[in-house]
Write a structure and sequence with these properties.
With 170 residues, this protein is of the alpha+beta class. It contains 5 helices and 7 strands. It starts with 7 loop residues before the first helix and ends with a helix.
């Protein structure tokens, strides 16, 4: 049986106007940075769009955009270089910090054999409070009007750091 081919319009059909505007803005930024798009259906996330670094064979993209139900959109930002932009992380508002605080703690610290081999989790601070969080759940954040500027800031900083690393390896 052939796999269904999904388009961005399939993903955005149930989304509200604010989420569509956010998605289109992020989509334009990431495509402008040379990121590749992958649209897929997953067991855990449903229909998901992810963006992967140019010339990278890694499966951890910079961002995955997830749509739950008719109106709830989330982004998963793989902030591998979060330590390079602590001011941006420190400026996150309380409602985003609360989402991060609710994310599961990293299993690698207590049960190294219970997580996948390549996991390293995130060990960072927000406003002096230390977090050691799961790689896939730490920056899984709700998209809402109040969060958009901060989410864009995280995405743009991560893109800059990844670009700097690529330039250093050339």
């Amino acid at each position: 049986m052939a796999r269904a081919k999904y388009q961005i319009s399939d993903f955005l059909a149930p989304a509200n106007d604010g989420n569509v505007t956010f998605f289109n803005h992020v989509h334009k930024i990431l495509l402008g940075g040379g990121y590749k798009t992958k649209i897929q259906v997953t067991k855990t996330d449903g229909l998901r769009i992810s963006y992967h670094e140019p010339k990278s064979k890694t499966t951890a993209g910079i961002i995955a955009v997830l749509l739950f139900g008719e109106k709830s959109m989330k982004v998963r930002i793989y902030g591998a270089n979060h330590k390079a932009y602590p001011d941006t992380v420190d400026a996150l508002p309380k409602h985003i910090e609360n989402q991060i605080a609710k994310a599961p703690n990293c299993l690698k610290s207590t049960h190294p054999d219970k997580c996948w081999k390549g996991c390293r989790g995130y060990d960072f601070q927000i406003k002096g409070k230390r977090y050691f969080k799961c790689l896939t759940a730490c920056f899984l954040l709700d998209v809402d009007e109040a969060s958009v500027p901060f989410l864009l800031g995280l995405i743009e900083k991560e893109m800059i750091e990844r670009e700097n690393l690529r330039e250093m390896t050339l």
